[in-house]
Every structure is written in C-alpha cells, then in structure tokens.
Amino acid sequence: MKKSRFKTAILLLFAVGGFYSCAEGERFGISSDDTTPPAPPVFDSVQRLPGGARIFYTIPDDEDLISIEASFTSETTGKVIKSAVSLYAKSLDLWGFADTSEHVVQLYALDRAGNKSTEKDVTVKPWEPAFTKVAESLTVKPAFTALMLNWENELQQNINIFVDLSYSLNGSPRSVRQAISSRKLTERQFIRNLDIPETEPVKVHVSVADAYGNESEPRDFGTLYVMRDEMLDKKQWLLPAPGEEIGVDSLGNIVYMSKSGGGFPIETIIDGIVENDGVTTALNRVDLGSAWNVQKVVDGVTTTINVNGRPRANVLIDLGAYYEISRIITHQMVNGVSAVDQKGWLYDYSNVGTYKVYWLDGDTDTGVWRLINQTRIDPPPIDWTDLEVILDAAKGNEAFMYPDDPKFTPRTRYFRYETVTGFRDNYTYAPAVLSELTLYGRKAQVQTP
What we know:
With about 450 residues, this protein is mainly β. The protein has helices at about 1-30, 130-135, 340-345, 385-395, 425; strands at about 40-50, 50-60, 65-75, 80-85, 90-95, 105-110, 120-125, 140-145, 145-150, 160-170, 170-180, 185-190, 200-210, 220-225, 230, 245-250, 255, 285, 295-300, 300-305, 315-330, 350-360, 370-375, 395-400, 410-420, 435, 435-445. β6 (about 105-110) and β7 (about 120-125) form a beta hairpin.
C-alpha cells in the first residue's frame, strides 16, 4: 500500500513538473509563427564616455523581449559595431568611436523569435578615445641595442602599438614592424636586439590602434640612433678579500666587501657560469645575507665586523680597468623543476628582489660610492609554468643603470652591488641570494691631465 502511494506521488510530481516546463517553454521558447516585433525602447538620455556612450532608456512592455541593442557603422573601418544587454539592464554602453564628433546610432529591441523593433536614432558625442590618448602620451628613446617606448593608458583599455622602423644595414634598406599589446595604466616596452651600428640612423613611426579597428595616424619620432655596448670581460675582474675596505658611503662610513655563505665561494658570482638548463640545479649559490664575521684590526684594536652589513650586503668588484657601465643582469639562484612550489620559492624566498648599484668616484682609499639606481625586480606573470619561471630566473633580470634615460655611468674602476631585500613578505625579507652578475658597458677613454 505504501509503495503504491509513493509511486502515485512520483507520477503526480512528474506531471506537475511537465506542466510547468511546458508553460515555461511557451513563455520563453522561440515561436516560428511569431512575426510581431516588440515595441522599441523609449530613449531617455546619453552619458558621454571616452570613445563611447552610455545610453539610458525605458524597457518596452513585451513578454517576449530578450535584449536591447545599439549599433552604428564605423566611418573609419566601414564595419557595423554592436552592443547588446539583457532585458533587465537599464542602460547600454557602446564603444568604438574614433573621434569626439557627433554620431547617430540606432537603438532597438529584440524578442525571442528574432523579431526586431523599429530603430530609434540616438545622437551621441563621445569623449576622446583611449587609442588617441595613448598615442599622444607615447615617447620613444634610444637605448642599448634597443628602443624604449613609454606610454600611459589611463582608461586601461586594450590597445595595440605598431612600431615601424626604417634603416640601412650593410648598404641594404630594411623595414621592420613590431606590434605590442597592453592594457596597463603605465607601460614601458622595448624593441630589443637591434643589431644596428650606433652611427646608422633609424627612422621611427608609431601608431596606436584599439580593439575596434580604429588606428591613429603614424606619428613620426624622427631619426634616432641605437646605442651600443658590450658585455664586460669577467676574466679581468677581481674580488677583494672579505672585509677589505674600499671607499666610503655618502655619510663617510667605510664600505666592506662581503663574505659568502652556505659553503659556496663568492667567486662563483663572477665565474660566467649559470649552471642551469631548466632541469638540473644551479650549484653556484652565493649567500649574501648570512651573518658572517671578519676579524679586523681597527686603530690597533682587534674588532669583529659583520662584513655583510645585515640586512644589506655588498659585492665590490674591481673591473680591472676603467669602464663606463650601461646595464646589469642579475641571475637568480635556481633549483630544479622537481622542487616543490618552485615558482613560489623563486619569487617568495631570499632571491634578490631589490638591489642598489654604485660607481666609485675616486680611488679605493678615498673614493666615495655614488648611488646609480635602486632596482626592483618584478615577479613573472602568475600564469607562467614552473619551467618558464626557472628559465627566466636563470636567464636573469636585465636593468639599465639609468632606466628612465639610458646612458653610461661616469668612468669607474670599481662597481658595487648592494642587495636590499628578497621577494618574501612583499619585498621586506632582508637576506638575498643570487647566482651570477653580468655587466655591460664600454672601456673608458683615458683622461688627460
């Protein structure tokens, strides 16, 4: 008896569900014989947007209504640009205008059968679009074997930068186009690996396009000359003994050479080898943050000095001759791909996150260390794989001595690398380790008395 009642209840449940399902199907389904268009939306007002417009309206009373749409034909591309919102939205944003002129767009409604209401002409007058704003903010500067581009994108819309270069190489004319995409608020990008003599003029034109096919007129940045440098020969370098005094800082304090830790000789930091192929481990670890002490005689008294100067550490390099330095590469210490949480370890542990670089103004005894720049190394994109992170860390982070205006440092015999923080705890963790340092620059000319 109980089973019979339960079976009857189930059948009734399905019947009721089927009834409401059919009712809903009739309410929202597409009817092949429905040819009646919905009423058009009632236009209310327009709000100006950069390169677009926000249209406010009253939704028409139609039970089959599915969406409100607006469209216009682009005068620059000839393409129809549309925007659609659900029937519950109270406004609609339409983008893709190339200027601040008045434009007439069509506002209409659609029902579930695909019927379209009559179109309502709406006049809009956008603010200046993002792509022209970006084009106006763009700057191009020569850099070392590269060109440096800077721009601002206050609206953070998707834009594309097209860079056209024209120059001659070995007597043959060359034309190169490179594209860069971005939506960052502020951006700095490089056209790198330009194997062009520094005496060869390069003509530069840049245009900016948006996602709707609008593109600015090519902007002529004139003739630029790529700067050239070369990697300094590490075989000529010398590392002072740990605790050796070389120069003073801006406050007159003596600067000491650091001592390595973790059982790895500090000389490996300039041996020219980054032992990493993406699979094996980097063995040339140099720990610059450990508290290693050196006994020194100061004014006749034996004193214990922490030469790492924790929380900072100094690597002082005798370049073997006078150079003007252009850029530096910091190679991180890397473990193998089998390490747990490799990505987090590389960029949340004690690898170098921020550092300072100096040149010595004067000789080793009386010289003053002049700050060149402080650099912060950005972690890689979060969507990179562990292997991509490892290879990038081994390749190293490249930075110009003067990042905002690439140029050579004054002539110097000594170079100083001071670690400031690692990546851990949002760049507040003091100790830092690295695998290798590489410098670029040029031999300084001999100064005449």
